[in-house]
Amino acid sequence: MQTTYLATYLAIKELIRNRGRFLLVALVIALITLLVLFIAALGEGLGNGNRQYVANLDAQLIVFLEKSDYIISSSRLETNTARSVRRVDGVADAGAIYTSSSEIVSLDEPLKVSLLGVEPGRPGMPTILEGREFRIGEARETVIDRNVALRTNLKVGDIIEIRSTQGTEDEFFELKVVGLVDGQSYFFQPTIFVPPATWEKIRPQSEAELTSDTPFPNIVAVKLRDPMQIEEMSVRLIERIPNIEVADIQTTINNIPGYSAQQGTVQTQAVFTLLIGVLVIGGFFQIQILQKVPQIGVLKAIGSANGMVGLSAVIQIIIVTAMGVGIGGGLTWLFSLGFPPTIPLVFNGINSLVAVILLLLIGPIGGLVSIIYAVRIEPLKALRLG
Question: How many domains does the structure of the chain reveal?
Answer without folding.
Answer: 2
